[in-house]
Structure formats: structure tokens, C-alpha cells
Amino acid sequence: MTARMNTCGESEGRLDISETGNWSYMLTVDHLRKRLPGGKLLLRDINFSVGEGEFVAILGLSGTGKTILLRCINRLTTPDGGEIVLTDNGNPLNITQSNAGEIREVRRRIGMIFQSFNLVKRRSVIENVLIGKLGRIGTVRSLMRRFADDDIEMAHRALNRVGISDLADRRAGTLSGGEQQRVAIARSIVQDPCLLLADEPVANLDPTTAEVVMEHLRSISVGNGISTLAVLHQPELARMYATRVLGVRDGVIVYDGDARLSDDDFEVIYGSNNVAE
Amino acid sequence: MLQNRYIIPVLFLLFFIWSIIGTGFSIKDLIAGVPNLSNFIGCMFPPAWDTFVPLISPAIETIQMAFLGTVFAVALSVPVALLAANNITPSKPVKVLARGFIAFTRTVPDIVFALIFVSAVGLGPVPGILALAIHSVGMLGKLYAEAIEEVDPGPVEAVEAVGAGKLQAVHYAVIPQVTPSFVASTLYRFDINVRSSIVLGLVGAGGIGFELIMAMRLFRYHEMLTILIIIFIVVMLSEWASNSIRAHVIGEEVLK
């Protein structure tokens, strides 16, 4: 098992089966199937694995189910078939077979970055960052809206990490898009996940801001050993930041490999009509 | 055949005439009644100023009734609204039940609740408070549930995605989003409750309304006018207070 400075919390006392399990992978998706409510089979047979510290970009045409795929991984969506296993610190957690209580356990270990940031706009930046801790705090205590000093300090450090420590007391809704996405990243840092899902994290941002945000994502992925799975719209961004690309088309993975796509790879993922673009 | 645009005005006119005939409304009777009316109002002047100070205490009781009734209504409406809102309710049967309760409290007039509670706990402000609390759920529960259904689901999802529970998601992502609308609805309901609590006094539920009905029954018309003046002041004050709070909250929104 690879040594990691920053492991996910609450792994003490769990059975360590790293000797026997498929420990080299952090996330394994096996024969995943997902049907849309209308009946259309969106994801037919998705198979891939993500190793520790990898930064994987998911590319594909609009409407191919890239976002649904991400949402299956933290069970914001329930898949119709197949298996997803998250191996945290040597302990495999079967995501697809988790009940409601176990899903919360799984979600604690998986951070998520959304296209529209999804901050609570009327609350302060620091409170938004502290939301990352909610999965580890008892419901009754968290209803008091009081956090431990350690947690607050951790939240400030996370804001510092993404370069916006001076905005801690501002209302989240008053921040620019790039700043809001950085708050969302800080929220994920505080969560201390082993896997980060990013759903078009820079689609709402201008190109310069997008690069700043992507740089922060890469930095926490590399710095904290957090595997990252990012749905991206631009192959260019994937080439710059990802260590690997997964191409989704017609409900299956059609490309799994180097982030520098050749014209042929591009055609495999997006189809021939789009090559000219 | 009638053109489409004439249908509504013609229907309106027909309904208007039909209602006038049905209720026997006549301008002639109204004009004939003017001397009686002026006689009645004449009897009220001048107001009995000596009763002004002793009437302040029941007036305060009216405001206290309205305030407590509104507070209890909010405490009851928030959980019921959460259960009734499509996006938060734990299950469909619970939602139907919660909506049924809200509709029921709205359908039964507060004065009916007051009569029931007066017979249960006796005369005084307590049955009035209970009546206001229950009946207000009909409006607040409905408005709250609508506000909850309109929240941006994104932040709720983000909170749930870190492994937080449903209650935490409501507390951290739903409540902040609905606060401005909850405050506005609640203040509006408080204004209504100040006026309602006066009416409830008429059936024995305490406050200045009770003094008004007593003065009427004892033919103390001068005292009645004093009471009406006090009611006017109370209503103006409460509306001014809720407008100030509303402006403060909305001002905060604009500044963000």
C-alpha cells in the first residue's frame, strides 16, 4: 500500500485487507449500467479503475452521461447495475451495495466539485468551507452551528491554500465565480477525501480563471494524494492537467489512456464530424 | 357568437347583477339608513378619554396574543412545511398528511377555533393565542412549503455529498435560502394576527376586542370610540414595526 501523508479519517480499527484486496486501485467501476427515467440506457457497460493520486479527465459529447457517471460514484444517483468499489486505505467499500447509512460513510470519503459551485450564498465563506466537516459531526451538535476550534483552523488553512484567506468572512454569494469555486475546493479539502469528483468544474468560468481553478485542483490532487475524476468539456484542459483521459461514447468507455489525444483518439471519442473544429 | 374577449366582462356583469339580486343589496335602503348611522356615530362623540389609560393594558394584551400566536404558529409551521414540501418530504403519504393538516387549519376560521378553545380552557387570552397559532398554520405552512420547493437544489446536494444527513442538509442549505421569504410571510401574518386577535376578543378570547364587545353590550358608546382609536393606534404601530423589520431584512439582502 502506498504511504500517504493525508489519509481519510476513521480508518482505525478497520480490517486491513491490503494484502489480499485489489489495493492498487482506489476506485473500481465494473459493468456499470444506468437507465434514464425515460427508459433510455445511458450508461451501458462502464469499466475502469482509478489509481491513487491519478488525475483522470472524463471526455465525451454532451448527453453521453458523463455527469451521471460521476453521480453514480457518490450515489447522488443510484445505478441500475454493476459494481463500484472504493478502496480507502486498504479497506474496500462497496458503493453500489451500500444502504442509506453506509452511503453517508462512502460520501465522507468522496469530495465533489460542481459546475455551479453550489455554495450556500447567504452564509459566510468560512461557514461554507466548514460544511465539508458535516459528514463527521453528529447531527445534534452540527445543528448548533458551532464547530470545534481545530475544524475552524483547518477551514482557514484550506482557504489559505486556495489563496482566498482574506475572504473568510464575506458572504459566499458576493464572490466572483472563480472565488466561489475555490471556496468549493476548500470545502473539499476540509472534508479530507481520498477521491475527488469534479463535474465540469470550470465550465462557468473565463479561461484565465479556469486555469487558476484547474491548477488548484491539480495541486490538492498531487499534494494530498487525492485521486481526481474530472468531467471536462475541453480536451485542451485535459491535456494540460490530467494524467489520463477516459472517453465516454454510446454508454461505454471508448478511450482509456494518455491525456494527449491524437486526431484518431479525438475521433474515437467525439466522432468524425467534430474533427474539423 | 360572442367574441372571446367579451366573455369574461359579460360573465362578470351577469354575476354582479345576480349577486345584487340574491343578497337584496339596495342603494335605497342604504340612503334610508344614513340618519340612523349618523345618529349612532353621534352617540359615540366625544370619546371617553378617562377610559383611555385603563384600556392600554388590554391593548397590550392584544399585541401579546398576536405575537405569541404567531410565534407558536411559526414553530408549528416550519416542521409541517418541511414535511409538505415536495423536495424534502420523507414520503408521499407524509406529504399528503401534512398538506391535509395545513388545508384543514386554513379552512376552519380562527373564530371557530377560538370558540372551541374558549369552551375548553375558558375565557381569556389563552384560547385566542391557541386559535391564532392553529389557524395561522394554514397560511404560513402553505407559504413556507412553497418557498422550500423553490430553493436551489445545488447547495442541498453539495451538503448531502459530503456525507451529511437530511436534517443537516435542511439546516445548512435549505433554511438559509428560505429565511428572507419566511421572515416576510411571518411578518405579514403577524399584521393579520393583530387584527384577528381583536375580532377573537369579541368571542371572549381576551384583549381589546373583549373590551369592545363589553362596551357595545353596555351601550357605552363613548368608551367604544376610545377603543376604536386605540385599535387604530395598535394596528398602525404593529404595521410600522413589521415594515421596519422587513425593510431591515430586505436591505440586508440588497447589500448581501
> Class of chain B in CATH?
Mainly Alpha
Report helical residue fraction of chain B.
over 70%
Beta-strand proportion of chain A: 15-25%
What general outline of chain B do the C-alpha atoms trace?
Answer: globular
Shape of chain A: globular
Describe this structure in words.
- The complex is a heterodimer of chains A (277) and B (256).
- Chain A has nine helices and ten strands.
- Helices cover 32% and strands 23% of the residues of chain A.
- Mean pLDDT of chain A is 87; it is low at 1-23.
- By secondary structure, chain A is an alpha/beta fold.
- Chain A folds into two domains: 25-109 and 194-277, Rossmann fold; 119-192, no CATH class.
- With 256 residues, chain B is mostly helical.
- Chain B has a single domain, classed as MetI-like (MetI-like fold).
- Helices cover 84% and strands 0% of the residues of chain B.
- Chain B has ten helices and no strands.
- In chain B, α3 (52-84) runs parallel beside α6 (125-149), α5 crosses α6 and α7 crosses α8.
- Chain A binds chain B through residues 74, 76, 104-112, 114, 116-123, 131-136, 139, 142-143, 145, 171, 173-174, 184, 187, 191, and chain B through 152, 154-155, 157-165, 167-168, 171-173, 176-177, 179, 256.
Features of this protein?
heterodimer; A: 277 residues; alpha/beta; Rossmann fold; disordered N terminus; B: 256 residues; mainly alpha; MetI-like fold; 10 helices; 0% strand
Summarize the structure.
Chain A is 32% helix and 23% strand. Chain A has nine helices and ten strands.
SSE blueprint:
The complex is a heterodimer of chains A (277) and B (256).
Chain A: E1 25-35, E2 41-51, E3 55-59, H1 66-73, E4 81-88, E5 91-94, H2 100-108, E6 110-113, H3 125-130, H4 139-142, H5 149-161, H6 177-191, E7 195-199, H7 207-224, E8 227-231, H8 235-241, E9 244-249, E10 252-257, H9 263-270
Parallel strand pairs in A: 3-8, 3-9, 6-7, 7-8
Antiparallel strand pairs in A: 1-2, 1-4, 4-5, 9-10
Chain B: H1 4-23, H2 27-44, H3 52-84, H4 92-107, H5 110-121, H6 125-149, H7 153-161, H8 166-201, H9 207-217, H10 221-255
Helix pairs in contact in B: 3-4, 3-6, 3-8, 3-9, 3-10, 4-6, 5-6, 6-8, 7-8, 8-9, 8-10, 9-10
